[in-house]
Amino acid sequence: MKTMGMWAITACLATGICSQTLTAEDGIQVRSVVRQTPRPLVLSIAEIDLTTAGLAFVVTGENGDPNGDAPGDPNRETTRRTTLQFLCDQQARLAINATFFEMGETDTDNVGLVVSDGVPVSPFYENWPALNIDAQNRAHIVRGRHETFDLVAPEGVQLHNAVSGNRQIVTDGKVTVNEANTDVHPRTAVGIGDDDRLVFLVVDGRQPGVSEGMTMKELGEEMCALGCVQALNLDGGGSSTMAVADPEPRVVNVPSSRTKWGKLGVLRKNGTNLGVRVGRE
Question: Are 186 and 204 spatial neighbours (Cβ–Cβ below 8 Å)?
């Protein structure tokens, strides 16, 4: 395990904020931030330079819907994998959990848009927004018609690698969460900067005195502070996970799921994960 030097610990005690770079190479920087206000928080932040040569994105692919397509059958479009398993399967450098999904079965129905390397996997859901990264690594927030892959906005975008959130928490550089809900939870968010950056954020939660989680509004404010002009809330709670390979694969945050004995860090098998490769054709 990588440890924080004494100077950083002293700075943390003095300011209530610690920041440690976990990995920084090939256009990807991952860091951990520890805060004590407004409550104990641990954030895992990844920033990806979309102009990096050899950069490619990967999304969980379809599995052939093994339960069949009889009327009334739920779709079982993807096979659940932990974010760490997905990272290893795809030989990715970085990965996070992504689209919401139905719990319970290994083959699962995703709730919202999923497209993997141009192959449609799961359609748009209601008016939920999605992140699309095209073949040239241009990132857009997209919306479409419910239960279809028909794009409504913006025009001229080709669906290529896409994952869905349930809410757009930053729009044109402003927080677009107005609710007064003060519930704090583990969170995963993705954002687009105006400087060819993509930002992944995982906030640990449900860990009293260590990292207690964020409200949805706080999540939007954090993504704005990280320079995002557009941002989405992705699946959170026990799903929230960030994994890296630098070079050994590992999970950098502490997921909130527990063993039956109460030990933290159980890795949930997620319906869809989003990863970043570097240097692969």
Answer: yes
